[in-house]
Fold this protein.
Amino acid sequence: MIELKNTVKKFDEYTALDGIDLKIDKGVAFGLLGSNGAGKSTILRLLSGIYSPDSGEVLIDGKSVFDDPEMKQKVFFINDETVQFGGFTLKKLKDYYRSYYPNFSDEIFETLRKKVDLPLDKKINTFSKGMKRQAIVIIGLACCTDYLLLDEAFDGLDPTMRIIVKKMLVDAMLDRELTTIISSHNLKEINEVCDTAALIHNGKIVFSRDIDDVKGSVHKIQVVFRKDENGNIPEYKAEDFNSDELQILHFERSQSIYYIIAKGDEDVIRAVFGSKKPVLLEIIPLTLEEIFIYELEVLGYDSNNINEE
């Protein structure tokens, strides 16, 4: 299990993480979603022991990972940059990591390498971006750690390379109880690979829960209300429907139809809007992309900084 408890991390005057509380169960595929600068990479560097928290705790299996070589052997971190490996051949890179990770599997390494036909004796700086990412993912999986951390794992890869890398990860997660944490600003990838996700904004957790629960808690509503005795359409505002059980994320009207995004139980939505005796009440499922965009807009953030594709 991974736990961050009231974790704060600052860089000079900049607060990257502002009292983060986060729990990640063992064996899950967990997505860290947020815009660039939200704090995703900082969390991964704390978990891999590169950074230490300024306050609070960062625990893996109940122990602090910073400055603990034994705990670091449980974690493999794949950075979004591969330039540091450029002077290595794949064979030398394998030998380098084998010396640090006692559970390194030559069998897994060779099986994965042959699947994508990567050369052993060519320097990695001669590889394409996709080949470089394949190489480090293969190394990471062959290290047989309990936790695999990936920072923008699929960024810049063409569709074919993305499929190959995702298949490697999914196969490893199915074969053993590998906990995988993937940071991304790409909603589609988190939806495809992860079963749980956290949305991070300005160094704080907006929410952290199962993706299926996220999809079931936010709804698009189309509603038409009865005209009054003078033939006028009632004029409502978001505040007329907000409550402890129902949060209005988006509210607009076009002629006689109200278009509303609301967070809450579907039965509550039907009861609240049904009490106004509408002519039409339709509740429409939202995609994960739409949900996250509306969540960010409520916070006043430009949702265009999170990509759908």
